[in-house]
């Protein structure tokens, strides 16, 4: 069944189409376009209209445009609208309106994408699930995700982010949510907000997108939790809390392993056991929110816990893998790829994970295995950014690290704050460290690479992988 026909798309957008067509998908990038997609000619760094001819040549079913591009015939399959982004938004709203899916919106300073993916795993097997690809959570990512949603979807998971005040509420209203989740509120994007309270107010505005009878799943125990709860009360929205002791959902006991965490949660309906196939308390706390969502949707608790147990972190967000450098002895080092995003809260969580992983002694040129961190700048933190970087030196997990290498002008503040015994290299750009990557690690080490996407420490992840053969870390019970 077609995702969109020309008749449906014209009705949704109010546009015009000279010919009939049907599309099986929606794409904004000719590099990822598949035959049968509707190509959306958004204007970003480049004007998407410049690529319409190429998209049609590659097999696009049609193109959403605001004008007939050069080199494209007037009778080509074009959906012409006054504004392309507004046309995409109209498709998103129409896709939401035509489906009976229950839609979950996820926002938060940290953990949006991993929580979205946990929800995808948890809901799979209990209905047809549609979720955003990558981190499509902004003004075009949310309508694109909605426009891609098949009419027979049972559950949709929409990630909603922000950089500036006033962004979240319109996207949440567009998604018309049944459940809204706020993972946490932490210092991030402070360049656009006066305080943590301001960030909390913006995050809480996701509740403006809840349908009547919807549910809010909110973190308890934060300095700004009262702001979130007050917003729920003002909107007359029932709130389920998680995280801190005393919340509706909290960790009663847990076994924290190198490969996984086994948790017994206290819930309003009694104890609940679950397993997260990754180390780290922060992942277990996010899992509480996920199971609370499943409960709010009335889903089977056993199936939900089983689905959650199949989740593993995606690349760039805490994924752990073994880099085998000696094929004969099958020895190497462990790499934690967390190079997609960073702020003080996620940095602390990643360091906590590194601190519980055990290096291996007597298998490398350096007798004792080490915990090593390669940390890149945390961006968009505003006027206090240098103090926030320097404060990482005081995190308790730092005491378990052998050495810390720093990348970026802001990370110079951390480098200066580190004790000399733990102070590794400092470079302004990741590229400067590339020629020396091989000398930074040894067999038996556990290496964390963490930083904001813009500082490009992912280059170092790629270079570390090339030192050997990457192999996903084996996890007991994984499927």
Automatic annotation (TrEMBL):
EC main group: ligase
Residues that bind ATP: 108-114
EC identifiers of the protein: 6.3.2.10
SUPFAM superfamilies to which the protein is assigned, alphabetical: MurD-like peptide ligases, catalytic domain, MurD-like peptide ligases, peptide-binding domain, MurE/MurF N-terminal domain
Domain Mur ligase central: 106-294
Domain of life: Bacteria
Domain Mur ligase C-terminal: 328-452
Pfam families: Mur_ligase (PF01225), Mur_ligase_C (PF02875), Mur_ligase_M (PF08245)
InterPro entries (UniProt xref): Mur-like_cat_sf, Mur_ligase_C, Mur_ligase_C_dom_sf, Mur_ligase_cen, Mur_ligase_N, MurCDEF_CellWall_CoF430Synth, MurE/MurF_N, UDP-N-AcMur_synth
GO CC term, one of those recorded: cytoplasm
Localisation: Cytoplasm
This protein's pathway: Cell wall biogenesis; peptidoglycan biosynthesis
Major subcellular location class: cytoplasm
Single GO term (MF): UDP-N-acetylmuramoyl-tripeptide-D-alanyl-D-alanine ligase activity
Substrates-to-products reaction catalysed: D-alanyl-D-alanine + UDP-N-acetyl-alpha-D-muramoyl-L-alanyl-gamma-D-glutamyl-meso-2,6-diaminopimelate + ATP = UDP-N-acetyl-alpha-D-muramoyl-L-alanyl-gamma-D-glutamyl-meso-2,6-diaminopimeloyl-D-alanyl-D-alanine + ADP + phosphate + H(+)
GO biological process annotation, one example: cell division
Mur ligase N-terminal catalytic domain segment(s): 24-69
Keywords: ATP-binding, Cell cycle, Cell division, Cell shape, Cell wall biogenesis/degradation, Cytoplasm, Ligase, Nucleotide-binding, Peptidoglycan synthesis
Annotated family: Belongs to the MurCDEF family. MurF subfamily.
Function: Involved in cell wall formation. Catalyzes the final step in the synthesis of UDP-N-acetylmuramoyl-pentapeptide, the precursor of murein.
Annotated protein name in UniProt: UDP-N-acetylmuramoyl-tripeptide--D-alanyl-D-alanine ligase
